[in-house]
Amino acid sequence: DNAPSFKEIELEERMSEMTAPGSRFPLPDAHDPDSGRNSLQSYDLSGDEHFSLAVQADPGGDQRPELVLAKALDREEAAFHELVLRASDGGGPALTVLDANDNAPVFSQAEYTVRVPEDVPVGSVLVTVTANDADEGLNGHVKYSFKKMTEKASKIFHLDFETGAITLLGSLDFEEGDSYVLEVQARDGGRLFDTAKVTITVTDINDNTPEISLREISEDAPSGTVVALLHVQDRDSGKNGEVRCSLDGDVPFRLQSSHGSYYSVVTARELDREQVSEYNVTVRAADGGSPALQSSAVLALRIRINVTDANDNPPVFSKSLYEARVAENLLAGSLVLRVVATDEDVGSNGRVFY
């Protein structure tokens, strides 16, 4: 009622391809608690012509199996050889314990789906895949690996080949990738395998501030003239990416919503460079995150708008009447009088010619 059993279900032996034929290697003994003919009686080896079995009997009658190299090895021809050692007793019917690799690994799920926020810390376990193999020993030992993987994903995800845990190797960024599909393979020691799909969906967090990119004007621009075009964008999604803009303070400008993420800054009234030559306008761009990120979701950008000069001022003499007395013998070329006129405009508009 007992079958012979080995203490170890599998044995790995490494040997050089230069090993001489006839070389012997001890094999593990089997044990059978039955007695007489019902106890262990014989060993049998199958699997490869390169090896044979020799059984030595010690003085006590116990049998010791040995592996004999019957044919020279060639690693280029075969890098490994799989052999099966059977131990049988003499009972009727004879009992033999042998596990065949007749079961492939099977994943607990055909597809694994997980959602993770983009700010999940590096090193976190995102999901653990599990496959079971009904075989024993090497035939039932499952190891995991990625089957197909992009170069980008290989820098972000790591798979533990023993546990099946997928951990985060690099930072996630929703704006750079919002979904990853990975193929994981479970393989046993007998080269049977199963494949599962892992879908990792990255969810967005409010981690991007609105970006405002920016122009210049003339003081004679009529009311409603576009003086600057703002492109406002937030790389977040949903309400986290919805941006509202406003201008601070009492300034002669107003905002007009344009197409999509564009805003126009237009003049609200006439400008006079001679009164105010420069404006500091604060544009506030806030997204719709809840709660809003106080330090980064609200961006105050100071835009310096230089008002260019229009030729709207004539030259003005310092006096309306100049008088001078000169002697009749004054030499030609002598200075008689200097007149001065000024122009409030700047540049070429303010240069005065007499």
From TrEMBL:
Coiled coil: none annotated. Keywords: Calcium, Cell adhesion, Cell membrane, Glycoprotein, Membrane, Repeat, Signal, Transmembrane, Transmembrane helix. Its main location: membrane. Gene3D superfamilies: Cadherins. It is a single-pass type I membrane protein. The keyword Calcium applies. It holds the Pfam family Cadherin. Residues 7-107, 108-212, 209-317, 318-354 form the Cadherin domain. GO terms for molecular function: calcium ion binding. SMART domains: CA (SM00112). One of its GO terms (cellular component) is plasma membrane. InterPro entries: Cadherin-like_dom, Cadherin-like_sf, Cadherin_CS, Protocadherin/Cadherin-CA. Residues 13-43 are annotated as: Disordered. One of its GO terms (biological process) is homophilic cell adhesion via plasma membrane adhesion molecules. It is found in: Cell membrane. PANTHER family: CADHERIN-87A, PROTOCADHERIN GAMMA-A3. This is PCDGA protein.
